[in-house]
Amino acid sequence: MREFVIRRLLYAIPTLIGISIITFAIARLSPGDPIRLFTFGVQNFTQDDYNRLVHAYGLDKPLPLQYVDWVTKALQGNFGDSFIYHREAFTMLTERLGATLELAIAALILQILIGVTLGVLAALRRGSWVDNVIRVLGVAGHAVPAFWLGQILIIVFAINLRWLPSQGLLGVGKSQTDVLDYARHLLLPAFVLALTGIAIYSRILRTETLDVLSQDFIRTAHAKGLRERTVVYGHALRNALIPVVTALGGILATLVGGALVIEQVFSWPGVGQFTFQAAIAKDYPIVQAGVMFTSTLLVLSYLLRDLTYAFVDPRIKVK
Amino acid sequence: MKQHRTSRILFALAAGALLVATACSPGPAASSPTPAASEKPQQGGRIIEATITDIATMQPVLSNDTSSARVINLIYDALLIQDPQNGEPKPRMATFTQSSDGLTYTFELNAKANWSDGKQVIGEDVVTAIKAVGKSKKTVRKSNYQDVQGFKDYSDGKANTIPGVKVDSANPKKVAVTMTKVSCPAILDLNTIQPLPTQVFGKYVTDASKDEIDTAPENAAPTVFSGPFKFAEWRKGDQIIMNKNETYWQGVPNVDQYVYKVVANQTAIANGLKTGEITFGTIQAKDLADMQTVDSVKIQKYPSLGYTFIGWNTASPSATALADKRVRQALAYGIDMDAVIKAVVFGEATKNVSHHVQVQWAYPAGANLEPYKFDKAKAQQLLRDAGWTPGSDGILQNSAGKKFNLTISTNSGNQERETLAQVAAEQYKGLGINAKAAPEAFQGLVTKLTTGDQSLEATIIGWSLGGDVDPYSIWHSSNIPDPAKGVTGFGFTFFKDGAMDKAIEEGRNPSNGDCSTAARKKQYETFNKILNENQPYNFGYENNVLAVSQKSLQQFAPAPYATIYNVHEWWIKP
Fold first, then answer.
1. How many whole angstroms separate alpha carbon A313 and alpha carbon A305?
2. Rounded mean pLDDT of B506-530?
3. Interface contact A164, partner B, CB < 8 A
4. Among residues A91, A144, A112, which one has the least CA distance to residue A251?
5. The domain at A96-312 falls in which architecture?
6. What is the mean pLDDT of the segment spanning B47-61?
């Protein structure tokens, strides 16, 4: 097992190097010059000012040299100062990490609670209208774009009904420790973020539950005279949950990635929104730190998934 | 085009970059304080203003976006204030006098002006601010101080003092700034950076300091204030909370708290105003009709300080027709701007035919500018005179058989400008021009413009005009970009005219030293007449600012040059 982990971590190195090169190249080669962008229209701005700023941000060096500079410093934990905020990029990301993780975890909990419930329900009521409704909802959950649904939910629940806030982390005048207010703000974005996962989980659970229910040990359980509830929840569900658990690692990474759109719609101040806005502003240090951070998380999530898989299903041996 | 209004980046972030915050029209003049002026102000309550982008910094030296500027103006008072209606410099924290040779400005800080820690605001704090600009490597403001005696050497690290900035040894509240040459915009340029508390920032401008001011922790968490509000908390990406400054030198604000709240977009602002979650803000013209049905809000209209225009590349190798003044005039006569304004901004704008807009004192009201009333026949005649006649397909062509094709670029995502580009293209098609709209990403467009990329033929963009009326950065020929030499600038029409350069120079650094409004106004009449005749831009229109506030908010009187200038007097009627 230890060897497996070490080997996987070693494999991650070339992956991350590749990602760093691609991120760096895309950021630099996309149209637009960050200095010209943020100085457009500045009164009295001169060519000397431009040259000075280009030098101050190290953008006058050849690209390969800029890349080496960046990687060297990044390995020491310094991703460079943001062009806009004038603070160290990774530190600024970590300030927003909490919001993203909370959103992702809330979405994960919603996915499991709702997805598993719907999946089991659909399996137990196979062929009934309940099964059909859940299937339609599942397809819709997959198909509906998150940004659109987010806007619709804002209009319905925040503007028309005024039940929930539409934007941000906390209401004005609320303390950082006001959990209830925080939960009210979290509900809509977490739900929209969870939707795809709910669709996936309900489908997996339906298939797995049906599969397990047709197996010999379930028949044996029935034959022993166990109650239906015990058979379903005590035996069938536990086995059907294996793929759900193993999917967790990958889903977490997907959630953090998916948060990019959701955070934008709900003005949720997380890593996704921050990186997205930095990309538009061509704030290279933040974009590079954001992408490297998310990529590392993704790589670690897949490793976690493989390990969890081996752990919950002893039939799988890691090599 | 004032510095603190130039956050192009953050504007772009939000939802399609507003270079021009809005533009203007001769709508009702900015309202005077509300009828409630005679009522006794109530104490308490909270003002909530929304922003689409979070602030970047609370350090005036580094600030380059409207969000940061808003918070900075709430926590640090400036030496001077521009008159909210006409932009003329007026005393705020200091009075000022100018020496007879026009070179030295002496500022005397108000005896009551103090910092929130109880210390007096003194001349040394002005020195600290100017030194901070000199030390900073990341500021975009150095040029505003370039004519201060000794500033350049200090900025280049060749000197430890700035001889041109001297505190009066007998009166620490007095500070004199001497320039190397008479510069009419200097008084407002010197007002760019607010005095900084030396007890906080002094340690970043010592002789040994390098550029530590750029990364000072107090930039993100200031501790001492001179403005009506004190910074309390920055919930990154969500809100900035400021509490009233109980020691504010102009009088303690009536409201307890000012919250600057980050929201997703303009729609969220309009919604927040409707529900009362936001105390005041500006809305887009498309939301006006809806907002007028809301009983709880008050809407004030006033002309904005800027304009949206179509810039013609007069040196375009592909659209060679644009080099001819008659063609550019035809493009002015040939577009029904009043109809365009109705279609694009629901009538909430006024046609513009000069660089200076109506709310600026430099506006050439008496210069008899050509209004370019819509006249299709005249436009067609001018095009014929310039050698462009319809071919068999109806498209104009010249004697060499070259067709008149025209691509109008603008920044994608800005709905107003995209619509304007389409409407303009349609109207120009009516003249026989094969015109098309081409939206592209703001980042790329701005770079192309400032580097003089010749692939651009016509571009719709806008200017926000604050600060001094000096048009040097945009219109002086020294600011025309030169791709071959790597020279960048805002003169992307490539239009130049010797007489216009002279008028700009005389309005900026007059040879006779006369910086009076009357003398400068004369120069700017000449300048605007040349532009009006030569039409390097179709000067487009000036939007109305549509300021919406809750009816409960009293003494809120926004104007073209300022919104929060009297925030300490605002109060909330229960």
1. 12
2. 94
3. no
4. A112
5. Orthogonal Bundle (1.10)
6. 94
